[in-house]
Amino acid sequence: MKQPDYTKEILILVLLLIPMAYLGIIWPSLPAIIPTNFNIEGVPERVGTKRDFLLLMIFLFFTNALIYFLFRYIPKEDEITDSGEVSHKEFYRIRFLIHTYQAVFTCIIIFMVSQGKPFAMERWAFIGVGLLLTAIGYYLRNLKPNNYVGVRTPWTLQSTEIWTETHRMASNLWLSAGIAVIIAGFFLSLVTGVFIIFFIAIVLAALPYIYSFRLFNKDKG
């Protein structure tokens, strides 16, 4: 069994923490009132506070953290073997790309707010998360059985057929969720959007797991 590369794990955790560290450094200089939506004439239609912005950043941080734990701890290392078609190197490359995207995207939002740039804050945050979910969903569709990436349940790892069916379902689910989050960003308030996306995250993690279990028991008769 391939052991985790702790140096690379630390680097990924650093990527996870960089946006919050950046926010902490520039927090005193952020404006107390932050315009979050502008009409075509450049007049703010909605404003928020630093506390509202902090809530948005916490939401982005926990979204990134959820993705980290899904990749790192599901399933546990002692539940898998070392015969997957996706290499250990590819496993870390995919994770680096995802967390780099999230870190850069979040830091850009923080920088724009610190500079007083007019933009729809919630909209861009939800669009960023939605694009990430959509990209992961597209990637899952043709993912081959392996021990590192994907819906790695005890049942998908035992059967190529269950793996394929589960990932087809998971791909459609993540793609649909990503598109829904993007659309929701144009209509929902920050607080409502955060709670809805937390619910979506639970669904994205739970449904493929349950689906693979049902397929396994169906095959067993």
TrEMBL record:
InterPro entries: DUF1648 (IPR012867), SdpI (IPR026272), SdpI/YhfL (IPR025962)
Record key words, sorted: Membrane, Transmembrane, Transmembrane helix
One protein family per Pfam: SdpI
Transmembrane segments: 12-33, 53-71, 92-112, 124-140, 173-190, 196-216
Transmembrane helix is among the record's keywords: yes
Protein's UniProt name: SdpI family protein
Recorded superkingdom: Bacteria
Domain DUF1648, first and last residues per copy: 14-58
